[in-house]
Design brief:
The protein is mainly alpha-helical. It contains 3 helices and no strands. The chain is flat and about 50 Å long. Keywords: Membrane, Transmembrane, Transmembrane helix.
């Protein structure tokens, strides 16, 4: 039962990441996108820390890409204002 609950918790985290990412892209909010990357960082770090192969460490690229997207969105909004 404990493994089931941890799986449900991780799926809730992934769902919240997708929700925050979609809302951030729709409203052009770099804060929501940063929060999405920060929330996704914990599950990907849990995969990458105990990994022995390089492809287990590959999911860490996704939160980093989200942070880069938020950075460019912030720079774009600063340039417009």
């Amino acid at each position: 039962m404990d493994f089931f609950l941890s799986g449900v918790g991780l799926w809730i985290v992934i769902g919240s990441v997708l929700l925050l990412l979609i809302l951030g892209l729709r409203k052009k909010s770099w804060q929501a996108i940063i929060l999405s990357g920060a929330v996704l960082l914990l599950p990907t770090l849990s995969l990458a820390v105990g990994a022995s192969d390089w492809w287990h460490r590959l999911p860490i690229i996704l939160p980093l890409a989200i942070f880069v997207l938020a950075y460019f969105m912030k720079k774009r909004t600063e340039r417009i204002i």
